Amino acid sequence: MTLKLGMVGGGRGAFIGGVHRIAARLDGHWELVAGAFSSDPKRAATSAAELGIAAERSYGSFVEMAKAEAARPDCIDAVAIVTPNHLHVPVATAFLRAGIPVICDKPLATTVKDAEALVLLVAETGIPFILTQTYTGYPMVREARALVAAGRIGHVRHVQVEYLQDWLAEPVERGGQKQASWRADPAQSGAGGCIADIGTHAFNLATFVSGLVAHALLADLTAFVPGRALDDNAALLLRFQGGAKGMIWASQVAPGTKNGLRLRVVGDAGGLMWDQEHPDDLEFTPIGQPTQTLRRGGEGVVTASRLPAGHPEGYLEAFATLYTEAAGMVRRFRERAKPDQATMLPTVTDGLAGMRFISAGVRSHEGGAVWINL
Ligand SMILES: NC(=O)C1=CN([C@@H]2O[C@H](COP(=O)(O)OP(=O)(O)OC[C@H]3O[C@@H](n4cnc5c(N)ncnc54)[C@H](OP(=O)(O)O)[C@@H]3O)[C@@H](O)[C@H]2O)C=CC1
Ligand SMILES: O=C1CO[C@H](CO)[C@@H](O)[C@@H]1O
């Protein structure tokens, strides 16, 4: 049975809402049937009509939508939240209180306090909550995680993540660019700019692949574009439990880069390198041996994927994997079955870890780039 999806945000002119819709459809588990697609009820209705949503399930606000959907016999099975950051917690809270599972984009919140309250609410209600940390859905990211867990690179010594973009290299927010406008506004973005927008992906990837827990960080944040209220470049050092070290460089002012997310994990027996713009390949170098390029779907690779090797997969498929696994989680919830303990889906607690990362980064920077315990 297809599950019914609702969406908050993601209307006309939005970036990621459309990606969520494609990803949700890809494996046939979800059908979009309801939405509150804009802060403006008129724009919301126009977007709903364009998306083929029945007029009675096009809502002028998320509050109205949560209430009305919960009262329907054919209530949505989950809501996808694809609004600016400051709305994630209020929207998630409204739907969780209405008994509806949540698929929320990152970062989880704008403050640690709000994120903690949401973690409590998810625990109290027992309702599924999935955080779309997209990069955890890539097969070769999961392969890297499996190799580290199997000890193939030995004891991890260092984790390095570079996440570089150039779209904020100029003050485009002042020209009203939709995506930049709210990202440069602390009231909508939170206390972090680049560290929140893409730094949280880098941090999530570092911990997801290495399996390590970070216990302290030191951050040097910069707003290179004059007059910008939030950082657009973040340099961080990390210390992990067990002695491993880490570094993150996240920047949105790096000309020549688009979505340049690159990960290196080195251990005392070998190293790994993965690059988001070439996602089908994972470089694996056991010490003293030539580098092997492991290919998605290819020889020796254990992580499942959709297509045979050489038939490229990418961002949409990674996103779709999260939606497909979310469908499994929601179905088990509906059938009152035990949750799948082996799931790799990022949850509300990963979201809280991301918020603690942002908050510690901002405090470290404000204190003069000092070490802060996480
Ligand atoms: N996982 C990933 O890889 C990615 C995650 N993201 C995250 O997704 C979120 C959205 O980012 P992005 O798509 O770039 O942002 P956009 O600005 O492109 O889209 C935001 C959408 O939210 C709508 N919106 C704003 N307020 C409300 C409201 N009160 N009720 C309903 N809808 C509302 C906007 O409509 P209107 O303006 O008409 O009000 C717009 O449609 C962010 O949290 C971002 O961090 C983004 C990109 C990739
Ligand atoms: O993964 C991502 C790609 O870039 C976007 C814009 O900076 C981010 O918001 C997003 O999370």
UniProtKB/TrEMBL annotation:
EC class name: oxidoreductase
Origin superkingdom: Bacteria
UniProt-listed InterPro entries: Gfo/Idh/MocA-like_OxRdtase_N, Gfo/Idh/MocA_oxidoreduct, GFO_IDH_MocA-like_dom, NAD(P)-bd_dom_sf
Keyword Oxidoreductase in record: yes
Documented EC number(s): 1.1.1.292
Keywords for the protein's UniProt record, in alphabetical order: Oxidoreductase
Pfam family, one: GFO_IDH_MocA_C3
Residue intervals of the GFO/IDH/MocA-like oxidoreductase domain: 141-272
Coiled-coil region: none
Residue ranges occupied by any Gfo/Idh/MocA-like oxidoreductase N-terminal domain in the UniProt entry: 4-127
The protein, known as: 1,5-anhydro-D-fructose reductase
MF annotations from Gene Ontology: 1,5-anhydro-D-fructose reductase (1,5-anhydro-D-mannitol-forming) activity; nucleotide binding
